[in-house]
């Protein structure tokens, strides 16, 4: 290969995830065969369902909005060396915050509602992530376990609030009253229709732009600011950070709060933009998809956007798929998500030694074992 | 008096039944984590096994083949986790998560495709399920005050898997404390370098641990779908795998304390079911959700050192890379 060291590294950084993704898709095709359908036809229907017509693209982008927030949340924590799998709980609390803000404000114009709702969503999410962050930094409790526990505590808390406190009187379902229509986050449909691209009933709303804005903000915060430098240093080596005068504890707590705030913004999309009322289970597992998105996106904002589009397409295409092929359950999407996490995440380095041997002359082949500590 | 005894007995009997899947799954977690492999995939292994058990029991009309299939599926997923963690040096949390998500998708997908009942298996006939056993002399002794009903409905009246779980605890405690395999297993969770220096294969021990873990989770899943329940339904584990993980940590990675934690969580669950809509004197109605979040809160408090201290196996979650 006529490439220098950096060129080879870049090649591997592109080829390896693509290879892992391809293997995950082949395995998914295997599952479709076992379920008794034609995988080529099914995957074709999936792609058509995700990108085939403007409304489908609108839905794909709407799902991607949630996944961008959740993926950013995981990556910010990851850069600080923390594994936040509490995105689900933080998103739940974020939605609760947004909803409570609107219920308290009443019929205000939407910009006011959007500002207050976004602030409340980010705040509630940050508080829910502060506790595991604090427990990790000050009491040494493992962040993975505490964030799992906080997911369940959040679910129980939310169920209690919805069933006993916030339920609309006279309603059967545990849902709050519908928010005043003036507070609804504007859909992107009119603006896009003006450009000749009619997304129809797709629930794509202004929070998509908020998601892109958050990506830019994370890029600046983590890679172009002093606190971002501290955050990444702690993530690489706590000892080095302490030696450089950075307090690892405080940095971990701050990183977790930013992470929780980002996860909380899922609530803006779902509660302010789509549901217009408080309800249960509006997160739909996007906190966990966020882990896959962050892994695929190599914990970088641009990567997160691309991976979120991929998972948004899977979510939208998968629901179309189950309409076209009655034998295929809607949960097939979850299978594909799981396989992507398995091959692109847990087994991400399986093919690295082979790929490196292929890209490098044998004499300089890097030891395979050294590459395992990427996500320690 | 009689009512109080009956209520107490039924509460304790329910506790035993609710604790069984937790005990089995937590035992699986115990083998994995004492060997240094962090496993948050207990939930996924249970769910996949529950589906396998119900599917095979339905087709073959044999609970034993169902149990075998469940354990085989549990072991297969356990070995997949071991492969990702031990051979590929992957992130153990990511691998566990992947298995959870994969199982959450695969079980209903295959159930829909094979049984066409919206992601469930058909309701199993009694012949395809493990039935409650009636212990000898239950009827003769039932009139003995307190002890009679206790013998009949708390000690007896459960299916085989309950007694299997009860036996697995002392067995595991003995294996970990006294057998050569158990001592090596614990050593590999504390200090794999030392085990390696002694000439014992770290990877092999961890694969053995994950095999046992998968088998235990498989039995836990089979209990849900072909013993306690009468078939597989969507999301039937409903977080029990994570509750078992909490019990494992709350029991500080020790078999007997872990059993106590499982019984405590199961008792809270059994009590919660009976307290629904009942006003307690002085407290009024306690929302069920507060009882439901109790195990998780207790585990967080323990992990934070506010209620004793839980010390994890030292090499937990750390991949072992053999020096050459």
Write up this protein.
The complex is a heterodimer of chains A (376) and B (324). With 376 residues, chain A is an all-alpha fold. In chain A, 71% of the residues lie in helices and 0% in strands. Chain A is built from 16 helices and no strands. Chain A is globular and about 70 Å long. The model of chain A is unreliable at 364-376 (pLDDT under 50). The termini of chain B are far apart. Chain B has a two-stranded antiparallel ribbon with strand order 1-2. Chain B has one domain (2-303): ABC transporter involved in vitamin B12 uptake, BtuC (Orthogonal Bundle), CATH 1.10.3470. Chain B has 13 helices and two strands; from the N terminus they run ααααααααααααββα. Chains A and B meet through α6, α13 and α15 of A and α3, α4, α11 and α13 of B.
The chain pair forming the largest interface, with residue counts per chain, is: A-B, 54 and 51 residues
Query: What is the helix/strand order of chain A?
Result: HHHHHHHHHHHHHHHH
What structural category characterises the helix and strand content of chain A? mainly alpha
Q: pLDDT under 50 segments of chain A (min length 5)?
A: 364-376
CATH topology of chain B: ABC transporter involved in vitamin B12 uptake, BtuC
- CATH top level of chain B is Mainly Alpha
Helical coverage of chain A, percent range: over 70%
Tally of alpha and pi helices of chain B: 13
Strand content of chain A: under 5%
Give the overall form of chain B: globular
**Span of the ends, CA to CA of chain A:** 31 Å
Q: Would you identify the CATH architecture of chain B?
A: Orthogonal Bundle
Main beta-sheet annotation of chain A: none
Percent helix of chain B: 55-70%
Number of strands of chain B: 2
Major sheet attributes of chain B = 2 strands, antiparallel
Order of helices and strands of chain B: HHHHHHHHHHHHEEH
Number of domains of chain B: 1
The average pLDDT value of chain A, as a whole number, equals 88
Terminal CA distance of chain B reads 71 Å
């Amino acid at each position: 290969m006529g490439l220098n060291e950096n060129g080879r590294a870049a090649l591997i950084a592109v080829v390896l995830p693509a290879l892992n993704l391809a293997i995950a898709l082949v395995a998914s095709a295997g599952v479709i065969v076992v379920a008794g359908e034609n995988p080529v036809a099914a995957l074709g229907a999936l792609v058509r369902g995700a990108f085939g017509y403007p409304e489908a693209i609108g839905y794909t982008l709407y799902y991607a909005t949630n996944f961008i927030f959740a993926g950013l949340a995981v990556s910010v924590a990851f850069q600080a060396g923390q594994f936040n799998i509490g995105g689900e709980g933080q998103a739940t609390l974020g939605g609760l915050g947004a909803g409570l803000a609107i219920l308290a404000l009443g019929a205000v114009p939407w910009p006011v509602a959007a500002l207050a709702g976004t602030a409340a969503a980010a705040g509630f999410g940050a508080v829910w992530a502060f506790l595991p962050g604090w427990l990790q930094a000050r009491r040494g409790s493992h962040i993975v376990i505490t964030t799992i526990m906080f997911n369940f505590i959040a679910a129980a808390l939310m169920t209690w609030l919805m069933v006993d406190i916030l339920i609309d009187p006279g309603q059967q379902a545990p849902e709050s009253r519908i928010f005043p229509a003036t507070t609804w986050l504007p859909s992107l449909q009119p603006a896009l229709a003006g450009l000749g691209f009619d997304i129809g009933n797709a629930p794509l709303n202004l929070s998509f732009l908020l998601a892109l804005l958050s990506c830019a903000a994370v890029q600046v915060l983590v890679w172009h600011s002093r606190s971002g430098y501290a955050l990444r240093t702690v993530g690489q080596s706590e000892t080095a950070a302490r030696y450089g005068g950075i307090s690892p504890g405080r940095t971990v707590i701050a990183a977790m709060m930013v992470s929780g705030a980002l996860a909380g913004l899922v609530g803006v999309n779902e509660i302010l933009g789509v549901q217009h009322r408080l309800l249960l289970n509006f997160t739909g597992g996007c906190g966990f998809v966020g882990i896959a998105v962050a892994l695929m996106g190599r914990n970088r904002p641009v990567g997160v956007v691309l991976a979120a589009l991929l998972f948004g397409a899977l979510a939208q295409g998968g629901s179309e798929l189950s309409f076209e092929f009655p034998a295929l359950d809607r949960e097939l999407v979850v299978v594909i998500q799981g396989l992507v996490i398995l091959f692109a995440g847990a087994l991400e380095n399986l093919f690295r030694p082979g790929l490196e041997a292929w890209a490098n002359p044998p004499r300089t082949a890097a030891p395979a074992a050294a590459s395992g500590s990427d996500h320690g | 008096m009689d009512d109080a005894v009956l209520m107490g007995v039924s509460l304790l009997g329910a506790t035993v039944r609710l604790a069984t899947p937790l005990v089995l799954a937590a035992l699986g977690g115990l083998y994995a984590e004492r060997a240094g492999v962090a496993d948050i995939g207990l939930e996924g292994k249970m769910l996949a096994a529950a589906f396998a058990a119900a599917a095979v029991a339905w087709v073959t009309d044999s609970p034993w083949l169902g149990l075998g299939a469940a354990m085989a599926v549990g072991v297969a997923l356990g070995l997949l986790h071991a492969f990702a963690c031990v051979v590929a040096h992957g992130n153990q949390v990511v691998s566990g998560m992947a298995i959870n998500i994969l199982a959450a998708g695969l079980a209903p997908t295959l159930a829909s495709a094979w049984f066409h009942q919206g992601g469930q298996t058909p309701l199993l006939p009694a012949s395809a399920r493990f039935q409650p056993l009636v212990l000898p002399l239950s009827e003769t002794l039932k009139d003995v005050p307190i002890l009679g009903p206790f013998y009949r409905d708390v000690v007896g009246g459960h299916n085989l898997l309950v007694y299997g779980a009860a036996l697995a605890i002392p067995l595991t405690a003995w294996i970990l404390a006294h057998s050569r395999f158990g001592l090596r297993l614990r050593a590999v969770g504390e200090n794999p370098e030392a085990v390696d220096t002694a000439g014992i294969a770290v990877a092999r021990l961890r694969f053995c641990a994950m095999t046992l873990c998968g088998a235990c989770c498989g039995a836990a899943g089979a209990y849900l779908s072909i013993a306690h329940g009468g078939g597989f339904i969507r999301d039937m584990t409903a977080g029990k795998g994570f509750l078992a993980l909490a019990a494992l940590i709350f029991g500080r990675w020790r078999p007997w304390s872990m059993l106590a934690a499982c019984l405590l969580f199961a008792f809270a669950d059994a009590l919660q079911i009976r307290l629904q809509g009942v006003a307690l004197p002085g407290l009024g109605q306690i929302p069920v959700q507060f009882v439901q979040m109790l195990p998780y809160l207790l585990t967080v408090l323990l992990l934070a050192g506010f209620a004793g201290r839980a010390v994890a196996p030292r090499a937990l979650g750390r991949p072992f890379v053999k020096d050459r």
